[in-house]
Amino acid sequence: MENSEKKPSAENPYQLLNLKLSTVAQSAAGMHAVMAAMGNLVEEKTFFRGNLALLSMNQFKGFDCPSCAWPDPDDERSPVGEYCENGAKALAEEATTKRVTADFFKQHSVYELAKLDDYQIGKFGRLTEPMYMPKGGTHYEPISWDHAFNKIAEHLNALQSPHQAAFYTSGRTSNEASFVYQLFAKEFGTNNMPDCSNMCHETSGSALRPTIGIGKGTVTLEDFYETDLIIEIGHNPGTNAPRMMSALAKAKKNGAKIIAINPLPEAGLMGFEDPQSIKGMIGGGVKLADLYLPVKINGDMALLKALEILLMEFEKQHPGKVFDQAFIKDKTTGYEAFLEQFKQEDYNLDHLAHLSGVSTEDLHKAAEMIAFKNRIIFCWGMGLTQQPNGVAMIREIVNILLLKGSIGKPGAGVCPVRGHSNVQGNRTMLIDEKPTDEQLDRLEDLYGFKMPRAHGYDVVGTIKAMQEGKVKFLFCMGGNFLSATPDTTYTANAVRKLDLLVCVSTKLNRSHLIHGNEALILPTYGRSDKDIVNDEVQMISTENSMGVVQASKGMLDAVSKNLINETQIVCKMAMATLGEKSVVNWPLYHDSYDAVRDAIAQCIPGFENYNIKVRQKGGFYLPNAAREGKFITKKFGDRAPFTLTEIPTNRLEEDEYMMATTRTHDQFNTTIYGLDDRYRGIKNERRVIFMNQKDIEKLGLKAGDKVDLFNYDDGITRIAPLFVIVAYEIPEKNTVTYFPETNVLVSVNNVVAESNMPASKYVKIKIKKHEPTIYDQVKKAEEDYRLMQ
Fold first, then answer.
1. Which residues lie across from 533 on neighbouring strands?
2. Largest CB tally within 10 Å, which of 160, 212, 224, 645?
């Protein structure tokens, strides 16, 4: 039995590798991207198999990339490479010929595996059969599918209330699996459906629904080719959505300008070397950003307010030429109150420039670029959504677009750049801890059972509920719950209190090693695998960032004959748990994706004739009233409201610094492909902290020194030991580190107002020179933390 001294670690090992620095890149993609993608195929021992699959990825009759949610072109697609470097790496991880079998688990205890870092854990290969961790066990053991589902049913039916169960969803899950998953949770009796939106773009939906009537973006890919100005704020396309750079380059070719707003001058914001053209790779590429604004962490609101002041001045000088007064009159409300706020003392340009960290000169340049254009697209990522006032900042972006009349016309609108490939589709399929009465009424009309109406737990709420013993069963449909969530020690302690943890996965990850009294790993197909039901390769569907629903059909032979698809996993769980009590025809859904799509068509608007439309070339667009200039909001009818927001007060003590977490170019979410961050000049290391040179000197340190990082939110000491300082072009008092290594510093109570997302881009830390005794302090802090719970 694992005693307290052999409890699996929730953290990556506290060890440094051999950091090497190279030149910081000034552009992204190019030949280096091609070579890196091919290198991963070789590493995964799948060069020929993987390259064959790449020819089908993102093609009309192929499968959807398992990486980001950037849309595919509606018309022509590259027959050779309609994917990016990170998409190729994601495919390599799926197409790998390496296997994790029952013999592997027999040879390696959970404690032994937990001593490895996330990169090493993820490189063992694909899971091949269901595995079970018995109570008090040290090793996972093989289990039959039937026994696994009986085990799940036994635990679920033993709960005192259905609300003691929670059902988590990753963005990789298909529309079909998502629909039956939420349906099972509701028939079981709960809306406890935390999902990865709760950690990435819940903020976007919370901001947009009350203002423009829809919680999604309003633009299409074609809008990027017709726009005059693109404003990228809090987003790094080179790493987070590399195929977006092709759209940005095409926009530039068509005459658009680009403003980049970010604390770091990311390569993907500055330039693009198109790997699909000889000129792109050897000709120096395309310059992207016409203006770069180095905003402080959480200085974005001050920056947006400063731009509005300058735009108001332009409007006074050129009445009716800067603000779209007809649009404001016909389609908005609250304009006068919006203007009135700028009479407050805080609203002066010098003060706002100081708060933002951007010079008044550069703010003037940005305002000039915006003033006489109305085909404007605002794009953002987690650099905004994971700020404590992220909802307010996105509403301020909407304010600017309403002033300009820049929503609901070609080349204009909002573009929250979503992360995982079907995270938007999950929410459309009703994966939502706060379903609306309208959604529940439609489900009730179709299925005839009473839907649970109480709102359920989101991710942060689920973590706290596990810690408090209110949730005893957690089912994870994909993802790496532990490594993705904040406050790692707190979350790990909470997970260990579960009666049963179930993870549906394709590969091993740290969430399998930090488990409840019992645990199950259920292996499933990857996006590129042939999903065979009744001797026929099946088609699933997904929704991309711009509301296109399209078909996806895998073409690789599965890694094992002992896998079943996610939809079947849910249906078998439902049949085992609910039995004859169920009114849903689970056997029908188990055998037929078409039957699932027919059900979706009957209860989710926009999916009428789903089975016909999804088989059309390129799929179909979902309705988007705001895209057509119609703002249907609960509170304001057919008008979009201007929102009054506050300027945050960001106070730091003399020895405090603001930290934002980010990912390297060699990872996607919590999946670590390699140990380099090529664009930022980092090789063979992840435990680094990017700092301004002046801050380094003030601390009496130098680049290359080893330091320990501390957070003291909620009166709790959180420690991330042993990081290497890297001097970087970043605003003073601001720092950046990689996740999940510093998730331990993000308090579970440090959340975004309204959306309740972890505010991982706003963490106050103290930096101290590394001391060997820090590890004793870490153990004490973890023990103190555990006792406090």
1. 536
2. 212
Contacts of 448 (CB under 8 A, 6+ apart): 583
pLDDT of residue 287: 87
Q: How many CB atoms lie within 10 A of CB 636?
A: 16
Token output for 68 = 């980001």
Task: Establish how many alpha carbons lie within 13 A of residue 491's alpha carbon, considering only the half-sphere containing its beta carbon.
Answer: 30
The Cα–Cα gap between 115 and 375 comes to: 53
Query: Does residue 543 sit in helix, strand or coil?
Result: strand
Tokens, residue 119: 């990169």
Residues 409-424: pLDDT tens digits?
999 999 999 877 888 9
Q: Supply the pLDDT for residue 786.
A: 75
Judge contact between 14 and 258, C-beta under 8 A: no
Distance CA 563, CA 257 (A): 49
Matching residue, tokens 């930290």: 659
Instruction: Decide: residue 699, CB within 10 A, 0-12 exposed, 13-18 middle, 19+ buried.
Output: middle
Strand runs labelled E in 349-498: 376-380, 413-416, 473-477
147's tokens: 């026994």
When the pLDDT of each residue in the chain is averaged and rounded to a whole number, the result is: 93
pTM over 0.70: yes
pLDDT over threshold 50, residue 2: no
CA-CA distance, 173 to 521, in Å (whole number)?
16
Alpha carbons 474 and 756: distance in angstroms, whole number: 20
Encode burial over 553-567: b for 16+ CB neighbours within 10 A, e otherwise: bbbbebbbebbbbbb
Using an 8 Å Cβ cutoff, are 197 and 225 in contact?
no
- DSSP collapsed to 3 states, 36-55: HHHHHHHHCCCHHHHHHHHC
Domains along the chain?
4-22+657-788 (2.40.40.20), 122-197+433-621 (3.40.50.740), 202-416 (3.40.228.10)
Q: Are 491 and 10 in contact (CB under 8 A)?
A: yes
**Per-residue model confidence (pLDDT) at position 4:** 39
Residue 277, pLDDT above cutoff 70? no
User: What is the β-pairing status of strands 229-233 and 376-380?
Assistant: parallel
pLDDT bin (cut points 50, 70, 90) of residue 31 is: low
The tokens for 131 are 């595995």
In the prediction, which pLDDT does 481 show? 96
Radius of gyration of the chain (CA): 25
Between CA 92 and CA 411 the distance in angstroms is 35
Closest to 789 (Cα-Cα) out of 345, 568, 468:
468
- The count of other CB atoms within 10 Å of the CB of residue 701 is 17
3-state DSSP assignment of residue 252? helix
